[in-house]
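Example for reference:
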Amino acid sequence: MVKKTIVYVNFSPYENAGRILDYLLDNFDTVILFLLNFHQLGKSQKPGKLVVYRNKKIMEEYPLIDLPFRIPPSLNFILLPIRSLINLFQILWYNLKLRNKYGKLNLYFTVNAFTSWIGNVLKNFKVVEKTIFWVWDYYPPRHPSKITSLMRWIYWQFDKAAINSDRVAFLNKKLEDLRKKIEIIPPNAYFPTVPIGTDPIEKLNKKNLEKIIIGFLGVLKKSEGIDIVFDSAEEMIQKFPNIEFEIIGAGPDEKYFRERAKKIPLSVKFYGYVASENEIRKIQLRWTIAIAPYIPEESNVSFYTDSSKIKSYLSLGIPVIITNVNFSKEVIKSSAGIVISYNKKEFINAVSKILNNYQDLRKNALDLSKKYYYKKLYPLLFKSLI
C-alpha cells in the first residue's frame, strides 16, 4: 500500500467490477470514491454517494445529489445532460473540499469519457496531479433513435478530450482500433490493454446435476438478451424437467421480465439488485450454467467492451453460454462454455452440450479465469504514476 490518494469515479453497480475497488483499497492508503447512479436498479438501490476510505476504513460519507424524482427509462437519455451537470459540479466541489482536508490528490481514475474530462479539468486547475482513463465503452455513432445518436455525438466530444489523460488504457484492442478508425486517436499511438480482471476461487465446490440452475447477473435491459431463456422455456422444461432460472440484478426492463416470468412454465427467481459482492458469489455458486446472451445489434455497446459478468462467472468455475462478444474467442479456445448465435435452438443445444461434458467445462472455466487474475493485471494501470 502506497501513501497516495486516489480519486475514483464510477457508476453503480460497476464500482467493483473485476474487483477494481478492492484493488484500489489494497494499494492506496486513501481512496475517494464517487459512486454515481445511472440505471434504475429498483427500490433497494441507494442514492449516489461519496465515500472516503483511509487504510480500507470508511472515514466519511456524503450523499450525492441526483434528480429529485424517479426517471422513466424513456427519459433517461433526454435528462442525461441535466444529470451530467449535477455530477460535474459535485465532483468539482468535493475534490476542492477534500484536497484542503486530505492534502494532495495524487491520482484521478475513472472509466467514463465525461467523468474523465472532469478529471482533466481538475488537473488543469492543479486540484489533482495526474489522471487515468481506463476506457470501457464504445458507443457506435449511429443509432435508430435520433436522441440517442445526439447524446452519443456529445459523448464523443468528451472522449476526444479524455484521450489527453496522463494514462489511457483500453479493456481490449478493439476499443482502441475503433477509435483509431474514426480518428479519435492517432493511428500509430500506443496504449496498454488492461481487461476486466477475475478473482478465481481456489478449488471447485462439489456440484451434482439433480437440479440445473441457469443464472444471469447484470442490469435488466432487453439488449442483455435474456429473452432467449423465456422464449425457450417450454422446450427447456420438456428436455430438462429439473431446470430453473435465477436472475441477480435490476434495471429499466425489470417489470417486463417479471411479467414474462408469470406466463411460462419455467421457475424464475428474481433476487433484484444485490449490493454485496459476497452475497452475489454465494448465489452464483449454486448455478450450473451462467449466461450472457447479448443481442447482436450494432448499436449494442456490450459487443465492444469486456463483460464483467462473464469474468465473474468464470471466476467461480461456471461454464458459460454467450453470444459472439469480444471475449468469445477466449471461451471457444479454452472450452470454457458455448458461443451461440442469438437463437433459441442453439441455446437449448448449448445447455445439452455443457451438461454432457460438465466437469471438464467447469475446470476449463476456472483455468481460463486464472489467466486474468486482477492482481496481476491492474498494476499496469498505475505503473510509473505512483
